[in-house]
Amino acid sequence: MLVGIYASYQNQVHEGMQHIPIKTCIPIEEHGRSMITPFAFRAFQQELVLSLQYAISEMAYGSYLVRHFKKMDGERLVIRVPEEEQIHCSCKEFESHALGVLIVKNYFQLPERDFPI
Ligand SMILES: [Zn+2]
């Protein structure tokens, strides 16, 4: 999980951070900016902006159907396990699909469990 986005998590997280403007004003974005490297944060921002274009339907047992508003095919299933702060998408990546679910569930921070330090 979080592979492409957080793989470059490093200790010098504050280096150059202030030079990247926030794009969405979503709290989760500001949290991400304080947590990950500028390089990773740019990729994260792209996923975040994309995540705002999904229709998200809550299903039973903590699962969510995620669909891009322009595409009738390509539905994804996102499973959330709040007790373990875990979130998985059927495409096996943590990206815009999972982010979309976090946003509709009023997450203001990225789940700590997903940071491979
Ligand atoms: Zn996905």
Count of the domains: 1
Count of β-strands:
4
Bound molecules: zinc ion
What is the strand content?
Answer: 15-25%
Q: N- to C-terminal separation?
A: 12 Å
Structure in words:
The protein is of the alpha+beta class and 117 residues long. It has one domain. Helix content is 31%, strand content 18%. It has a 4-stranded antiparallel beta sheet with strand order 1-2-3-4, with helices on one face. A hairpin with a 4-residue loop joins strand 3 (76-81) and strand 4. Helix 3 (38-51) crosses helix 4 (96-104). It is globular and about 40 Å long. The two termini are 12 Å apart. 26% of the residues are buried. The model has no long low-confidence stretch (mean pLDDT 82). The structure holds zinc ion. Zinc ion (ZN) binds at residues 76, 89, 91, 93, 95, 97. Putative transcription activator involved in regulating light control of development. This is Protein FAR1-RELATED SEQUENCE. Belongs to the FHY3/FAR1 family. Keywords: Metal-binding, Nucleus, Zinc, Zinc-finger. GO terms for molecular function: zinc ion binding.
